[in-house]
Amino acid sequence: MKKTKDIFGEIVPELKKQKFNIDIDEFLDFIGHYDFTYLISPSEVQGKLKISIVDTYKLLEFLAQHKYLEPVIPVYCPYCNAYSGYYYDTIGARI
User: Fold this and answer.
1) What is the DSSP letter of 91?
2) Single pTM value for the model
3) How many CB atoms lie within 10 A of CB 59?
4) Residues 21, 56: contact at Cβ < 8 Å?
């Protein structure tokens, strides 16, 4: 099985073509510390790469479109704000 860093390394040419305002080596180093089950928040990416939130979301959207990331919605306790360990991949509509 490929490591996260190796898989993201495959998309480096595309990242360079898109001219994202990021240090690609720093991004690969950051993402290489996580496995495929870890949830990474946009604020973590923004803080580590020191880029604007707009650039952060552009980067994450690009990676999701190319199936390198899957956007999810984590569920937190409404009382203590602790992560429940659960997440949704869509927001269900109540009928």
Assistant:
1) P
2) 0.72
3) 22
4) no
Only one residue has tokens 């956007």, namely: 71
Burial group, residue 44, by CB count within 10 angstroms (0-12, 13-18, 19+): middle
Tokens of 82: 């602790």
Q: What is the pLDDT of residues 9-58, one digit of tens each?
A: 677 888 888 888 888 888 888 887 777 777 888 998 999 999 999 999 99
SS (H, E, C) 48-84: HHCCCHHHHHHHHHHHHHCCCCCCCEEEECCCCCCEE
Are the C-beta atoms of 15 and 44 separated by less than 8 Å?
Answer: no
Residues making up the chain, counted from first to last:
95
